[in-house]
Structure formats: structure tokens, C-alpha cells
Amino acid sequence: MLSKKIEEVLNKQIRIEAESSQVYLAMACWAEVQGFEGVAQFMFAHSDEERMHMLKLVKFVNERGGHAQISELAAPPTEFGSFKNMFETLFNHEVMVSQSINDLVHITLEQRDYATHNFLQWYVAEQIEEEALARNILDKINLIGDDKGGLYLFDNDVKQLVAAGTNAPQ
Ligand SMILES: [Fe+2]
Ligand SMILES: [Fe+2]
User: Fold this and answer.
1) How far is the CA of 42 from the centre of ligand 2 (A)?
2) pLDDT per residue over 51-78, tens digit each?
């Protein structure tokens, strides 16, 4: 059984995962309308992944005697300026999510909720991967800069990444 406090903080995380899904969906659209198919595919897949993170939390809250709250979401931006800027936004967003998961883990220890603590370990591992992936892409884009030909190759690279399942929903 979840305490009120744990239910409340898990519901906050449900909202963060849902908003992450929206942000990446907006990034997918921005890339797609400019013809960057690889980056668009990557972002669509990432958006699905965040929705799956949200659903996993929803099921857990309901199974543990809480009530998952589906709330209104903040609208993400529609423009991202440049790919460098967009992937920086993505990386910073993931760092923010990791911080939020860390805070949650800390609260479960304070509350001695070891079941939720155990459940959250999956998210801790997932955030390590997501930060590494975002940093990896950011390194590549920093090498390319604004070079058009480089961006074309980068888009193809990202497409390979999606095809290889590196970013496939788990
Ligand atoms: Fe997530
Ligand atoms: Fe994420």
C-alpha cells in the first residue's frame, strides 16, 4: 500500500514522463517538416518510450492501492532553432528527469517504502542510458556544427541508431 506522500510524488513523476513524451513529439515534428527523417524517427521513438515510462508508473500506482492522476500538460515549444540547440534541450531535459528520479528514490528511503524503492531502480538505470545516449549525440553534433552536408550525414547516422534499436522502446 502506498502512503499519501509516495502516491503524490509518483503522480508528479507520471506528469513529468507525459510531458517528456510531448516534448519529444514536438521535436519529431520540427525535424520531420524540415525533411530530417532520421532525427524525426528517433524523436518519435523516444516519445513512445516516454509514454511507456509513464504507463509503467500508472500501473504501479494503481496496483499498489493508489490512484494514478492523468493531468493537464504544459505545451512544449514548436521551434527548436537548430539541431545543436534541440539536442542540448533534450540532454538538459534528461538531466532534469534524472534529478527528479533521484529525489523520488530519496523520499522512498525516508518513508521506508522499499517496494517503491525497488521499483524505481529500473528508472535509475534507464536514466543512465538516456543521458549517455543524449551526450553521445550531442558530441557528434558538436563536431558537425552547421555544415549542411554534415547534418545530412548526421541524420543518416541517427537513422541507423533507430534501426539498430538503440532507442527502441523497452
Ligand atoms: Fe522517461
Ligand atoms: Fe527520457
Assistant:
1) 12
2) 999 999 999 999 999 999 999 999 999 9
Stated length of the chain: 170
Residue 2 has pLDDT above 60, yes or no: yes
Q: What are the grid coordinates assigned to 54, written together?
A: 509513464
State the chain's maximal CA–CA distance in angstroms: 56
Cβ(46)–Cβ(167) under 8 Å? yes
Expressed in angstroms and rounded, the spacing between residue 53 Cα and the centre of ligand 1 is: 5
Q: How far is the CA of 143 from the centre of ligand 1 (A)?
A: 27
Ordered domains of the chain (ranges, CATH): 4-163 (1.20.1260.10)
Q: What is the pTM of this model?
A: 0.93
CA distance 15 to 70: 7
> 13-36 burial, b if ≥16 CB within 10 A, otherwise e?
bbbbbbbbbbbbbbbbbbbeeeeb
Q: Ligand 1 centre and the CA of 46: distance in Å?
A: 9
Which residue do the cell numbers 510531448 mark?
22
Residue type, 129: E
